[in-house]
C-alpha cells in the first residue's frame, strides 16, 4: 500500500520537471501539473536545496519499482550541475530553470543550500560507495566550502559563514549546524587521508553550535548567530532569536557520538532535552519559542513536523546502542527517514 502511494505521489510530482532545463519548479499543482517558483527566489529561480534534495528518494523509488524514470530525472539534475561554472568552486543557491543560469551569487551551507551537499555524500553511501561521481562532487564542494566559508572567530570558535555579494557574512544559521555531522559522516573515504581532519572539523562545528545554545537564557539555540567583534555565537537581531524545535544541532551530536563515543555529546543532548521539556512543552504537545534570551519566553504555538521526525528521533538514537539503525546499513534522508544501503 505504501509503495502504491509513493508511486502515485511521484507521478503527481513529475510534471514539476517539465522545464527547459529539467531543473524542477519549487511547486507543482497536483491537479493541473502546472509548476511555478517562489516569487521571492532570485528572479524566478529554483532553489539548490530543493532541486538538489530529491536524489535519495527518487533513486530508491526506481529501485523499488524497476522504473528508471525517477532515477533519470535526478541524474539529469546532477549532470547539469556538473557542467556549470561555479564561482570559487561554490554552488550558488539559485538556478533559473528556464535559462539554466545561476541567479544571484549567494552561497550557503545553511538554508537554501544545506541538504544538496548532504545528498551528494549520502548518494555515495546509499549506493554502497559505488557512486563515485557523487563522492567526487561532495569532496570538491567541501574543499571549496572549507576554503571560502569556514573561519575561526577571535574567540577560537570554528564557524561556517555565508557568501553574499562577493563577501563573507560572519553569521551561521542553526540549519548550518547539521554540517558537523555531515563532515563526520563523510570522514571515512575522504580524499588524501583527511578523515581525521574532517572528524576534527565536525567536532569543532559541534562545539560552536553547543556554545550557541549555552550562551542563551533557555539553553536552546537561536535561529542564527553572529561572529562580529565582541559578539560570538549569539543572535543579535530580534528575528533571529527564536527556536522552533529544530533538530540540526542534535543531529550533529548524534553523528559525533556514533563516531567518537565522547560522553560530552550525550551530556549536551541531555541538556537540550531538559530545556525542550522545560520551555517548549505545552498541553497539546511542544511549541517553538520566540526569544531564547528571555527568561519568560512566548510560544509561537506551532509544533513543526520535523520535531517528531528528526529532533526526537535523533535524541532517541543518541541514547540508544549503535546497533539500532547502524550507519553501515542505513542512510538517513534529510528528514531523518532511514533508507537502506543497497
Automatic annotation (TrEMBL):
It is a single-pass type II membrane protein. One of its GO terms (cellular component) is extracellular exosome. It catalyses: N(4)-(alpha-D-Man-(1->2)-alpha-D-Man-(1->2)-alpha-D-Man-(1->3)-[alpha-D-Man-(1->3)-[alpha-D-Man-(1->2)-alpha-D-Man-(1->6)]-alpha-D-Man-(1->6)]-beta-D-Man-(1->4)-beta-D-GlcNAc-(1->4)-beta-D-GlcNAc)-L-asparaginyl-[protein] (N-glucan mannose isomer 8A1,2,3B1,3) + 3 H2O = N(4)-(alpha-D-Man-(1->3)-[alpha-D-Man-(1->3)-[alpha-D-Man-(1->6)]-alpha-D-Man-(1->6)]-beta-D-Man-(1->4)-beta-D-GlcNAc-(1->4)-beta-D-GlcNAc)-L-asparaginyl-[protein] (N-glucan mannose isomer 5A1,2) + 3 beta-D-mannose; N(4)-(alpha-D-Man-(1->2)-alpha-D-Man-(1->2)-alpha-D-Man-(1->3)-[alpha-D-Man-(1->2)-alpha-D-Man-(1->3)-[alpha-D-Man-(1->2)-alpha-D-Man-(1->6)]-alpha-D-Man-(1->6)]-beta-D-Man-(1->4)-beta-D-GlcNAc-(1->4)-beta-D-GlcNAc)-L-asparaginyl-[protein] (N-glucan mannose isomer 9A1,2,3B1,2,3) + 4 H2O = N(4)-(alpha-D-Man-(1->3)-[alpha-D-Man-(1->3)-[alpha-D-Man-(1->6)]-alpha-D-Man-(1->6)]-beta-D-Man-(1->4)-beta-D-GlcNAc-(1->4)-beta-D-GlcNAc)-L-asparaginyl-[protein] (N-glucan mannose isomer 5A1,2) + 4 beta-D-mannose. GO terms for molecular function: calcium ion binding; mannosyl-oligosaccharide 1,2-alpha-mannosidase activity. The keyword Membrane applies. It holds the Pfam family Glyco_hydro_47. It is found in: Golgi apparatus membrane. The keyword Acetylation does not apply. Pathway: Protein modification; protein glycosylation. Signal peptide: none annotated. It comes from the Eukaryota. InterPro entries: 6hp_glycosidase-like_sf, Glyco_hydro_47, Glycosyl_Hydrolase_47, Seven-hairpin_glycosidases. Its cofactor is Ca(2+). Its main location: Golgi. Keywords: Calcium, Disulfide bond, Glycoprotein, Glycosidase, Golgi apparatus, Hydrolase, Membrane, Metal-binding, Signal-anchor, Transmembrane, Transmembrane helix. It is an enzyme of class 3 (hydrolase). Disulfide bonds join 177-209. Belongs to the glycosyl hydrolase 47 family. This is alpha-1,2-Mannosidase. It comes from Bombycilla garrulus.
Amino acid at each position: 500500500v505504501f509503495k502504491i502511494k509513493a508511486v502515485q505521489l511521484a507521478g503527481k510530482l513529475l510534471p514539476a520537471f517539465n522545464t527547459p532545463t529539467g531543473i524542477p519548479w519549487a511547486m507543482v499543482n497536483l491537479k493541473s501539473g502546472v509548476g511555478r517558483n517562489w516569487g521571492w527566489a532570485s528572479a524566478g529561480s529554483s532553489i539548490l536545496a530543493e532541486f538538489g534534495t530529491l536524489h535519495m528518494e527518487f533513486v530508491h523509488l526506481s529501485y523499488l519499482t524497476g522504473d528508471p524514470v525517477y532515477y533519470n530525472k535526478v541524474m539529469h539534475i546532477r549532470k547539469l550541475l556538473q557542467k556549470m561554472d561555479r564561482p570559487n568552486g561554490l554552488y550558488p543557491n539559485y538556478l533559473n530553470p528556464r535559462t539554466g543560469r545561476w541567479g544571484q551569487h549567494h552561497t550557503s551551507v545553511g538554508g537554501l543550500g544545506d541538504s544538496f551537499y548532504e545528498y551528494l555524500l549520502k548518494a555515495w553511501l546509499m549506493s554502497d560507495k559505488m557512486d563515485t561521481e557523487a563522492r567526487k562532487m561532495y569532496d570538491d564542494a567541501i574543499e571549496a566550502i572549507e576554503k571560502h566559508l569556514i573561519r575561526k572567530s577571535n574567540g577560537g570558535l570554528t564557524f561556517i559563514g555565508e557568501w553574499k555579494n562577493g563577501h563573507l557574512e560572519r553569521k551561521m544559521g542553526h540549519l548550518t549546524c547539521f554540517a558537523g555531522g555531515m563532515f563526520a559522516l563523510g570522514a571515512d573515504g575522504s580524499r588524501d587521508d583527511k578523515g581525521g581532519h574532517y572528524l576534527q572539523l565536525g567536532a569543532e562545528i559541534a562545539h560552536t553550535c553547543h556554545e550557541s545554545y549555552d550562551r542563551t537564557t533557555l539553553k536552546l539555540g537561536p535561529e542564527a548567530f553572529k561572529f562580529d567583534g565582541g559578539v560570538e555565537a549569539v543572535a543579535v537581531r530580534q528575528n533571529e532569536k527564536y527556536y522552533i524545535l529544530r533538530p540540526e544541532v542534535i543531529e550533529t551530536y548524534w553523528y559525533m557520538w556514533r563516531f567518537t563515543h565522547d560522553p560530552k555529546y550525550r551530556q549536551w543532548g541531555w541538556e537540550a532535552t531538559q530545556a525542550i521539556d522545560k520551555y517548549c512543552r505545552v498541553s497539546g504537545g511542544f511549541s517553538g519559542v520566540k526569544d531564547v534570551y528571555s527568561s519568560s519566553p512566548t510560544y509561537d504555538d506551532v509544533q513543526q513536523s520535523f520535531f517528531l521526525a528528526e529532533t526526537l528521533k535523533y535524541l532517541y538514537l543518541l541514547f540508544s546502542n549503535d546497533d539500532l539503525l547502524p550507519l553501515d546499513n542505513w542512510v538517513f534522508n534529510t528528514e531523518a527517514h532511514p533508507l537502506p544501503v543497497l
